[in-house]
Backbone:
């Protein structure tokens, strides 16, 4: 017989607790989900889309708490219990927590807030212009801590204002104000509160990762680490090529700034000298042309002036020829005939000198033999 006053626990509740414990031991990952305001039709669509990726256990909050309290070999179960809110359910999976969160987030839709609902996130009234004209609404906004000013005949919110904090209850006035601003803060879908994996608890702030920003942060960290390793001279497989290139540039710069000669520097110096020589030559040619033009301007040719005819005594032709040469000197070179004649004269002169030399030698030989020259 049972003791007096002892309440017998229904069998189905015992089985429910055992089933939750079985699922916790079966799956390495579990998540606490808030099912409040989730239509059953949308729930079925989400479960069909996820298929075998997840197993969802919906039960009473007290039974879920009793089951989790009975698990002693997994740390931080007390924090999992504390995270339950709204209409809790437990999601079990073997998939990556971030992948599960991203998949469920894609299957959410926005909806207007209703009085009494719990804010899934911080609900913020953003700064900027509104469609409201100045009037009684100014006092309504002021009651909610929203400061405004008039711009172009309309009200403008001066700065961002958190109207309802995450987990707070939405009042009728706040719900009405959000509707007038056109803000739909409610998420219709499976709202994950936390995900538990091997004693680690991931809340929404960690799970809601901006992948592009995350990848950019990794790239920035990689670039900064490479820059640091090069600055301190720490060689790694990722920076060794860059460091060799940097060392080559530094040694080249050092050689160019000093008198150190290298094969590469000698080639560059020769090439530079050649370029400078050609440049100087080009400048010299230009200067020569300019000087020539200036000389022409300073000493223009005098036009021949007609002089009155004078009686000139006839002189011998040879004398006139010499006078003509003096008055009109010429820079014209010798003719071909003159050159040939000069060559013949030189040959005759050389021949005569050779004959005279031979004759002198013969005379010397005779004298040495006792004869007469």
Residues:
């Amino acid at each position: 017989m049972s003791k007096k006053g002892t309440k017998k626990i229904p069998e189905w509740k015992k089985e429910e607790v055992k089933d939750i414990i079985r699922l916790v031991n079966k799956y390495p990952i579990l998540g606490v989900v808030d099912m409040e305001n989730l239509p059953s039709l949308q729930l079925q669509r989400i479960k069909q889309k996820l298929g075998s990726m997840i197993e969802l256990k919906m039960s009473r909050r007290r039974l879920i708490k009793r089951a989790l309290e009975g698990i002693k070999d997994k740390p931080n179960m007390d924090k999992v219990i504390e995270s339950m809110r709204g209409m809790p359910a437990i999601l079990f999976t073997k998939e990556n927590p971030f992948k599960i969160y991203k998949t469920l987030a894609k299957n959410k839709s926005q909806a207007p807030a209703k009085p009494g609902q719990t804010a899934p996130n911080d609900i913020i009234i953003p700064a900027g212009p509104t469609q409201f004209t100045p009037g009684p609404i100014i006092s309504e906004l002021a009651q909610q801590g929203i400061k405004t000013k008039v711009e172009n005949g309309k009200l403008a919110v001066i700065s961002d204002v958190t109207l309802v904090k995450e987990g707070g209850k939405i009042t009728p006035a706040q719900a009405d104000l959000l509707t007038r601003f056109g803000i739909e803060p409610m998420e219709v879908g499976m709202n994950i509160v936390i995900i538990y994996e091997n004693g680690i608890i991931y809340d929404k702030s960690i799970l809601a990762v901006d992948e592009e920003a995350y990848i950019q942060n990794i790239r920035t960290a990689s670039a900064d680490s490479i820059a640091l390793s090069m600055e301190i001279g720490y060689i790694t497989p990722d920076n060794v090529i860059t460091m060799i290139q940097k060392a080559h540039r530094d040694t080249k710069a050092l050689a160019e700034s000093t008198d150190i000669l290298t094969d590469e520097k000698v080639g560059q110096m020769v090439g530079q000298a050649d370029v400078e020589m050609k440049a100087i030559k080009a400048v010299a040619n230009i200067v020569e042309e300019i000087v020539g033009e200036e000389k022409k301007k300073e000493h223009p040719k005098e036009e021949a002036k007609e002089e009155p005819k004078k009686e000139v005594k006839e002189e011998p032709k040879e004398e006139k020829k010499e006078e003509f040469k003096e008055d009109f000197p010429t820079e014209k070179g010798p003719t071909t005939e003159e050159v040939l004649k000069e060559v013949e004269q030189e040959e005759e002169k050389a021949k005569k000198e050779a004959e005279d030399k031979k004759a002198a030698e013969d005379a010397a030989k005779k004298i040495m033999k006792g004869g007469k020259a």
Remarks:
- The radius of gyration is 55 Å.
- Residues 302-306, 324-328 have pLDDT under 50 and may be disordered.
- The longest strand covers residues 191-197.
- Residues 213-257 form one domain.
